[in-house]
């Protein structure tokens, strides 16, 4: 019976090893996905981030990049710990999994908080940002972001095209007679912003606020879904790690 029990125990350990190895490979791939989502947010959508007064949205993306990088390193460490069957390495691996889990919970909480306050923030700040900082020498990144926003989402002004009447730039000689920026035009040409007729510029109900809010909310859902998905996978990994740790004999000191 003793020999049978030992063989049964050894078989269970081997199964756990391969399960944990498979998990680590998937975990490593997932880390790449998490990091890619974070980098995409910061690089591809960085212009829109500059239009937001709060740094919460950017912070969530930075946390994802950090978590993704740690996940990929942890996946490699997990494979080493599994095949070398070292309890100390497994302990380190478990602690890293726990840290990543907490990071992703933090990113999820930040995303949820920002989700709740986004509408109010856009109402309070977007109009002022567009009218006071557009085409100002010290705010070139704002100008790029506003032009990109209006062209991509086919909108004009924060709430409506009439918002541009209060623009510092539109009121100046530098506007060269424009009523709205050229990026409001359906067919973009030099000085096309001199005409604000609906046939020439975008007249979208709700303006750019509704478009930007929808875009950010959709992206926050992606960040949240990725974080929750990876967190669930990590819980499985922590369970496997604990089982393998218990099945291995204690190392002599």
Could you explain the architecture of this structure?
There is one protein chain. The chain has 253 residues and is mainly alpha-helical. 70% of the residues lie in helices and 0% in strands. It is built from 6 helices and no strands. The protein has helices at 2-44, 46-49, 56-84, 87-133, 140-153, 207-247. The protein starts with a helix and ends in a 6-residue tail after the last helix. Mean pLDDT is 78; it is low at 1-9.
Topology:
Elements: H1 2-44, H2 46-49, H3 56-84, H4 87-133, H5 140-153, H6 207-247
InterPro entries: Tetraspanin/Peripherin (IPR018499), Tetraspanin_animals (IPR000301), Tetraspanin_EC2_sf (IPR008952)
Protein name: Tetraspanin
GO cellular component, one term: plasma membrane
Tally of DSSP helical segments: 6
Instruction: Detail the poorly predicted runs.
Output: 1-9
- The pLDDT mean sits at 78
The string of secondary-structure elements, in order, is: HHHHHH
Total beta strands: 0
Overall 3D shape = rod-shaped
Family: Belongs to the tetraspanin (TM4SF) family.
Subcellular location: Cell membrane; Membrane
Protein name: Tetraspanin
Transmembrane segments: 18-40, 60-80, 92-115, 222-245
């Amino acid at each position: 019976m003793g020999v049978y029990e030992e063989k049964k125990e050894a078989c269970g350990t081997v199964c756990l090893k391969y399960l944990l190895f498979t998990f680590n490979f998937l975990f490593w791939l997932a880390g790449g996905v998490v990091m890619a989502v974070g980098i995409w947010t910061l690089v591809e959508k960085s212009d829109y981030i500059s239009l937001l007064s709060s740094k919460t949205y950017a912070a969530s993306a930075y946390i994802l990049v950090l978590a993704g990088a740690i996940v990929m390193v942890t996946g490699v460490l997990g494979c080493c710990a599994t095949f070398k069957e070292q309890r100390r390495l497994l302990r380190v691996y478990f602690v890293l999994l726990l840290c990543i889990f907490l990071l992703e919970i933090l990113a999820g909480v930040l995303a949820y908080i920002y989700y709740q306050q986004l509408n109010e923030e856009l109402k309070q700040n977007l109009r002022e940002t567009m009218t006071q900082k557009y085409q100002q020498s010290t705010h070139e990144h704002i100008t790029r972001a506003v032009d990109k926003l209006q062209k991509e989402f086919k909108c004009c002004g924060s709430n409506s095209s009439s918002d541009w009447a209060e623009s510092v730039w539109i009121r100046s000689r530098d506007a060269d007679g424009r009523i709205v920026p050229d990026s409001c035009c359906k067919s973009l040409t030099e000085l096309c912003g001199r005409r604000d007729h609906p046939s020439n510029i975008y007249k979208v109900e709700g303006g750019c606020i509704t478009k930007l809010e929808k875009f950010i909310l959709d992206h926050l859902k992606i960040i949240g879904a990725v974080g929750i998905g990876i967190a669930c996978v990590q819980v499985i990994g922590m369970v496997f790690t604990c089982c393998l740790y218990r099945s291995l004999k204690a190392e002599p000191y």
